[in-house]
Amino acid sequence: MKFIAVVSTINLKYRLGCTPAWWQLLKSLHEIGNEVVIVPYLGGPCETLWWRAYPNPWRMPGELYYALSRKAFPKREGRDHRLRERMAFAITRAATLPVWRKHLRNIMTAERGVDVLMFFNVPLNQIAGIPTEMKRLFGVTTAFYDGDMPTILPGFVAERGFMFDYYQNAHLDEYDFYFVNSEGIVGDLQKRGARNVKPLHYAADPQLFQPVDAEKKWDLAFFGYGDQRRKKWITRMITEPSRTMTKRFVVGGTGFSVDLGEAEQCGDVPMSQFRHFCCSSKINLNITRDTHTDVYASSTARPFELAAMACCVVSCPYNGLEKWFSPPREIVIVSEEDDLVETYEMLISDSDTRERMGAAARKRVLRDHTYEARARELVCYLKGR
Question: Does 110 lie in the same domain as 13?
Fold first, then answer.
């Protein structure tokens, strides 16, 4: 199949959480025999061994708006959200939509033989009408992949600090297929008009996320961006035990306002150094936002990445995590009643158990959760199999 993929961005510098997933999925689509052509919605294009790329027709204004918005409206729960939303939507209707309509029409005309026009986390209301037009003019299958479920839905947008509500005045029925990372949200999207809503979960490329032989500098490590809707379990799993245990806790990432106790903070960790960060710790913590943990089978990238690197993982409670991994053989899931200090001490002192868990988790990824498997799943859906 031939894909035109309009992606939120392909540049990791913007720190949009889905970007590494787009790289891995698009690479895998190529590797199983598909042709991939990408167009970035934010930032510039990037030619690789796995895809060709077209320029972003709105690159300079888009980057300027992105920079100004983040400076003028820093991520704070609910603050200035309505003003930010009105500004974004006004820009959408006045300028962005016509430019993108013309650009995609030209690409579709030039490429010929395109089977699927697929949008990856692009603001829905900024492209409203385009999928319908491309389907009418070129007979392509249209698809949308939202990897931010359920936090991207109205009601969570302001708290998470997204620029604006992507779903305001959006037309979900424009798409022949609607792919999401959450099974628990399927019914909600169907009520909003989405057709053929299919779960397509996160995964890991086992060649990219593979274990490295690194010195165990820390006892427990956590990496993430922001503490919105996970302060409770950050406090429970990091702050409190770090004050009572004589162990080294480290936190990577940015945007933490919660007290981290005695944990060391090492700041942002580039993707190129992420493997060494994780593999340098005896235990890696998975602390997921409750918007994901409370809604059944709402996947995030971190458990799959850590498992692929054969890490020993301790996770906060997570509704549906057992769908992907078998505790306690492949992952430890704690509860409100568990003595975390006891759990940590047991794992830190037992390297054999940690190694067995890590090996079992990586084996599970290799069997069920590679991006090659997800790419094949996507193609099967699109071909109606």
Answer: yes
Residues 27 and 54 in one domain: yes
Residues 6+ apart with CB under 8 A from 312: 282, 283, 284, 332, 347, 353, 354, 355, 357, 358
Q: Is residue 269 domain-shared with residue 246, that is, in the same domain? A: yes
Q: Are residues 66 and 29 in the same domain?
A: yes
Rounded CA separation 221/284 (Å): 5
Q: State how far the alpha carbon of 172 is from the alpha carbons of 125, 128, 169, in Å.
A: 10, 9, 10
Amino acid of residue 50: W
The residue ranges of DSSP E strands in 93-170, in sequence order, are 116-120, 141-146
The edge-to-edge listing of strands for the beta sheet with 264-267 is 264-267, 249-254, 218-225, 281-286, 313-315, 332-333
Q: How many helices (H) and strands (E) does the chain have?
A: 15, 13
- The amino acid occupying position 227 is D
**Both 53 and 73 in a single domain?**
yes
Integer Cα distance of 69 and 51 in angstroms: 31
Report the alpha-carbon distance of residue 344 to residue 140 in Å, rounded: 53
Look at residue 153 in the predicted model and tell me its pLDDT: 83
Question: 256 lies in which domain range?
Answer: 218-368
pTM of the model: 0.92
Does residue 254 share a domain with residue 196? Answer: no
Consecutive 10-residue averages of pLDDT for the chain (385 residues): 96 88 98 98 94 90 66 50 60 78 97 97 92 97 96 66 70 97 96 96 97 97 95 98 98 96 96 96 97 96 98 98 98 96 98 98 98 98 89
List, in order, residues 6 or more apart from 124 with CB less than 8 Å away.
144, 166, 167, 170, 171, 172
Radius of gyration of the chain, Cα coordinates, nearest whole angstrom: 21
Which residues are registered as beta bridge partners of 283? 220
CATH number for position 334: 3.40.50.2000
Residue type, 298: S
